[in-house]
Amino acid sequence: MLFTFVCAGWEGTAHDTRVFVNAVLSNRTDQISLLMPSVGKYYVVDAGYPNIPGFLAPFRGQRYHARDFIGRHQPRGKEELFNMRHSSVRNVIERSIGVLEAENDELFEEGERENEQEFDDTEATSSGSNEEHITFDMSQTAEMAHVREEIATSLWINYRQN
Fold first, then answer.
1. What pLDDT is stored for residue 81 in this prediction?
2. What stretches pass through the bilayer (predicted)?
3. CB-based burial, 135-144: b 16+ in 10 Å, e otherwise
4. Is 2 helix (H, G, I), strand (E, B) or coil?
5. Are the C-beta atoms of 37 and 43 separated by less than 8 Å?
6. Which of 24, 76, 122, 141 has an alpha carbon 20 to 30 Å from 5's alpha carbon atom?
7. Are 87 and 58 in contact (CB under 8 A)?
8. Closest to 20 in 3D by CA, of 65, 10, 126
9. For the residues of 50-68, what is the DSSP string, one character each?
10. Alpha carbon 10 to chain centroid distance?
């Protein structure tokens, strides 16, 4: 439940992609833009977002939602398993947003207190951090597709062995 970026103030009718592009490509001095995640970490995005480095989208055309896997409906391949896990992570994100909007949530406040000390310890070093603002070329989608494929394969091997 640690937020790295919040882009508030958009109308509910704004398309997700428009908000995303604005957050990623914003170079206005009066607006903070989204920072690139560290190597090996990704922002979890839905299938409507571009499959670019740093952003992990699910496989299209495969079962996705947790309810699709209830009972005997186990994943039939690595893409479905990846999507099932991706959906689980997105559920945590959605739940975190709900907690953020709640007035008094004990678990959120506890996590906030735990992170305050960690943030205070890293604040001094983060001003000169090596984080980069996001720039991308749509030709990089193959690179992220390869990363997603590797993650899916690893998940599937582990799943089949257990």
1. 95
2. none
3. ebeeeebeeb
4. coil
5. yes
6. 141
7. yes
8. 10
9. ---TTEEPPPTTS--SGGG
10. 19
Task: Give the per-residue pLDDT at 58.
Answer: 94
Q: In whole angstroms, give the CA distance from residue 126 to residue 118.
A: 12
Give 98-126 pLDDT, tens digit per residue. 877 776 667 666 766 665 555 444 443 33
- Indicate the DSSP class of residue 57: P
b/e burial code for range 30-40 (CB count within 10 A of at least 16 → b): eeeebebbeee
- Rounded Cα–Cα distance for residues 54 and 103 (Å): 32
What is the residue-wise DSSP string for 117-133? Answer: HHHHHHHHHHTT----B
Contacts of 88 (CB under 8 A, 6+ apart): 66
Of the two residues 73 and 1, the one the predictor is more confident about is: 73
CA separation (Å) from 122 to 4, 43, 117? 14, 21, 9
